[in-house]
Each structure stands twice: as C-alpha cells, then as structure tokens.
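cron nightly-structures :: item 1 of 1
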Amino acid sequence: MAMKNPKLILLRGTPGSGKSTTFRNLKKHNDTKKWIFINHPKIKKKYGKESAKELLFLKIKENMKNRKNIIFEEMLHKTVKEKLSREMKKYGYKLKIFQFKISLETSIKRDKQRAKSKKDLIKNIKELYNWHEKSRDKNAILVNTERLNEGEVIKLIIGKLK
C-alpha cells in the first residue's frame, strides 16, 4: 500500500551507539511491520564501501517509487540529500534523521566488546567519533543511548514517526 506522506528514516551515530540494535528492534515493532528496512552495514560487508553506497541508493529509489516508508542506517545526511533530493521531492518524502549520541568512553567500551580485532581499535573509534561529532545534522533528533534503554529508544523513535 502506497503512503500518502512517506518517510525516509536515517539512523546514524558513532560506533557502539545503538543504531544496529535499534534497527533490529524497529523491524520487530508493530508500528513498523510494513516498513522497508535496508541494512546498509550488511550490504557494505558483502559488496565493499563504494559498491554498497550505490546499491543502497538504488534500493531506496526502487522503494520510493512505491511510496513505502524506509529505514536505513549509517549514512551522512548530506549524501542522502544529495543523492535522493529529486526522488524525495517527486514522491513527497520527508527525511527524518535520528542521531545516536553516547560519550567517547562508552563508544570505546561497547565497541571493544564486539570487536574481532583489538588492533588500532581505540584510535579508529576516536577518529569515527570525532568525525560524527563534526558531521552531525543540526536538525537531527538526538537519541542519547546512555540515558535511554532499548525500549525507551524505540518508544522515542516511534513517537517521532507519528
């Protein structure tokens, strides 16, 4: 079923901020059952960074034609606007960005727990953390995952989608 006012939802934030956990939890939520979920990190792992970016936007554009609500993660908001502005206007999409926020210490702690290789981990996390801080969209909805548990994060996002 085509949506009258479809939404394009971007989840972004530093490593360990809860984007992927939230992405998985939203997939299970009743209010988003009919949404399209595009797993950018999974595409990146399978096809490499540059190919994944092109595939991501191709999948999004295909679903935009049908005016489906779409959720994806890990992309710079400027890139999204640059690559999709024509389609967003044509199909009446509204972009909502959720910026996941945690401290550098928590980012390092969480990523250490899941990292396969510890080599250069802290340096890489610090670089990504600083990059995310500099590239934050001023209009994004902040999601502080240090203060909110998983259920509260989902409740916040679902509330902002209505």
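cron nightly-structures :: done
The two ends are 17 Å apart (CA to CA).
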